[in-house]
Amino acid sequence: MAFEIPSLKDSVHPDEWQLRLDLAACYRLVALYGWSDLVFTHISAKLPHSVAGDEHQFLINPYGLMFDEITASSLVKVDMQCNKLHDTPYPVNPAGFVIHSAVHEARPDAGCVLHTHTRAGVAVSAQAHGVLPMSQQSTFVLASLAYHGYEGVAIHDEEKLRLQADLGQANFLMLRNHGLLTVGKTIADAFLSMYTFENTCRIQVDALAGQSSPKDLTAVDPQILNGVAHAMRVQTGGLGGAFVWPSLLRKLQRESPDYAL
Question: In whole angstroms, what is the distance from residue 103 CA to residue 112 CA?
Fold first, then answer.
């Protein structure tokens, strides 16, 4: 760890502590799977009504820590303007919260917003055709995909309305020339969606590397897309991300257990 901080386990509401555990785990898993971009992306989680009441409060990463350094106690609680709501030695990045606050503001169902700048994600975001229906993974993404055009580094509040309009009710957002974003009711849902989104992009980049044109690829029958939501429910027993989350936590416990400090 780059820094030390006393555990908050006994000084916060149990529901907040559980959210801290899950969000810290998510940051560690993003690092473990190679999706982090030094310290320059964010994952935000909305605190439940039992903790925040009617206020909009969120947990976000302490700015400057690598994702594999983040712990449950080091996460910072902020409001919609990214003002810190508790004493903490860690800074936050208000500019980095612009995209996240826009999504949380427009989508009350957004318990977690996960944003990455991966090589494959940025590569596909720069391809004019976007995500192609050429893998099983892509069918899950295409069932709920939106695009937002690049407007430069996302630090201006005036971009929020345009981003919100582009996102609509989609759970996958491709930020053109920028990266990937997923919206989940839970942290587990957002992570599973990003796992699928990232693999969709990696598969597409690899497939196009061996072909001269997207026309040379075998496309998925459009009718198959209509049954994707049912197929996902069958695959996860109706649990969504919660189906795989316990196994991911076991993996993390073996490889990076100090996330829970």
Answer: 10
